[in-house]
Design a protein that fits this description.
Blueprint: H1 11-32, E1 38-44, H2 49-64, E2 74-80, H3 88-94, E3 99-100, H4 103-115, H5 148-161, E4 169-173, H6 197-205, E5 209-212, E6 228-229, H7 239-248, E7 251-254, H8 261-266, E8 271-276, E9 289-293, E10 295-298, E11 303-304, H9 307-313, H10 325-328, E12 330-333, H11 337-352, H12 360-379, E13 392-393, H13 395-400, H14 402-405
Parallel strand pairs: 1-2, 2-3, 4-5, 4-7, 5-6, 7-8, 8-9, 9-13
Antiparallel strand pairs: 10-11, 10-12
Helix pairs in contact: 1-4, 6-11, 9-12
Length: 416
């Protein structure tokens, strides 16, 4: 192993080394003034947009509700965990709400505090990262807002993109192989954007513009429809518009990627989740969301897995390790174009009609699915990932997804 002297001494590394020296007196001061004011320090997961958006917003919601908060006088200090910032606009907006100091200053103090006994009071706790297990998002408005100047910039850029003032638009966020580059361990979340064209065309017939999101994408979204905009591959794509579009969309259609937390968590916009995997971690806490899932095809038996089998074979270990679908003989089947279109139509009808009237059959299937889901969460020790479940599964999707709602007597799960 190379020693420190053998490594290339960059300015940042040198500052971190010096920081180890000043961390001791700074931490001593923080501990000494604790009776007067408690200084808490934590890091922001700035490298990943989903965590940079969701974790912080939910922490602020918890703080406002007295969860993981202090009754004593305290000051919270933050720093970015790495030098990579996934979205510069979001960093600008967080600095209006939080005290964010340079990483080289706070990181050494943060690390030292975690190894010196009795430092827990100086850490900023949260319940469970970016999961709203306390159902707080529906109880208060977003913490972030655009300045008048930013609003003016956003409206101007929308107009230049071809979206008229006040025209409703829907954002499509379809994750593909460009998301993590060569990192294949999460490619189970990828989908083919071409399967979303049918839904996009249908939405334009109903008066919406469609905006395809993405910072890195494998292929363009090809369409002659002038109301379908491939923003991800355009000259308009930038960090500011990634946030502004998420805040202003009528709703978004996504594949459970980090950007979801911009519309869904930061700005409380409705989200249609498609091609969801893993099913145990779908975001269940918002009532203005709908989901449809990828199916799991068991190649050895040439059949789809039931919901309980999916939990038993795949989801029970999802928190601690990445699934090896190939080794399990499981092929993930993407949603069809028609399934995505039908879910998008249901989403529009639900939002515009303030909750469309549902049939007894639809309600029965929803209850059947979610009752089984709760049982499987408990069996798999995953109940802590969810609060009150308010999500609805796509109605037409459930009509044809018998294998996800009706369990069979199968040796694979008989031991549960």
């Amino acid at each position: 192993m190379a020693t420190f002297l053998q490594r290339k001494v960059t300015p940042n590394r040198l500052l971190l080394l010096i920081g180890q020296l000043w961390a001791v007196p700074i931490l001593m001061i923080i501990r000494l003034i604790r009776p007067l004011v408690i200084i808490r320090i934590d890091c922001l997961q700035s490298e990943y947009l989903g965590h940079y958006a969701g974790n912080v917003e939910l922490h602020l919601c918890e703080r406002d509700h007295g969860i993981n908060s202090l009754s004593k006088r305290h000051i919270d200090l933050w720093f970015n965990l790495t030098n990579v910032v996934s979205n510069k606009q979001l960093e600008i907006m967080w600095k209006r709400e939080l005290i964010i100091l340079p990483r080289v200053l706070l990181a050494p103090v943060y690390r030292l505090n975690r190894v010196v006994p009795f430092g827990q009071v100086h850490q900023i706790e949260s319940t469970y990262h970016d999961r709203d297990v306390n159902n707080l998002l529906g109880t208060q408005p977003p913490h972030l807002a655009f300045t008048p100047e930013e609003e003016e910039t956003g409206r101007r850029l929308l107009s230049e993109m071809g979206i008229p003032n006040e025209a409703p638009f829907v954002c499509f966020n379809v994750r593909d192989g460009a998301f993590h580059g060569q990192k294949q361990f999460t490619n189970y979340r990828n989908a083919d954007v071409r399967r979303y064209l049918l839904a996009a065309e249908e939405l334009t017939k109903r008066g919406f513009y469609v905006v395809r999101m993405g910072k890195k994408v494998e292929r363009r979204l090809e369409s002659n429809n002038k109301k379908i905009l491939d923003y991800a591959s355009s000259a308009f794509r930038n960090d500011f518009m990634d946030i502004y579009l998420g805040a202003k969309c009528f709703f978004s259609i996504s594949t459970s990627s980090g950007w979801d937390n911009v519309p869904g968590v930061l700005f409380r916009r409705p989200v249609l989740y498609t091609n969801v995997v893993p099913i145990s971690q779908v975001q269940t806490w918002n009532s203005n969301t709908i989901a449809i899932l990828k199916r799991h095809w068991l190649t050895t038996q040439k059949r789809f897995l039931t919901q309980s089998e999916i939990f038993h074979l795949v989801d029970k270990d999802f928190v601690s390790s990445w699934p090896k679908f190939d080794e399990l003989g499981i092929v993930l089947i993407e949603n069809t174009e028609e399934e995505i279109r039908d879910a998008a139509i249901e989403m529009v009808d639900t939002l515009l009609l303030n909750g469309k009237e549902t049939t007894k059959k639809e309600n029965r299937k929803q209850s059947e699915f979610w009752n089984l889901y709760m049982q499987n969460l408990t069996r798999s020790n995953l109940r802590h990932l969810h609060g009150e479940i308010r999500l609805r599964m796509g109605a037409k999707f459930l009509e044809t997804a018998v294998e996800l709602t009706q369990d069979t007597i199968d040796p694979i799960v008989s031991g549960q």
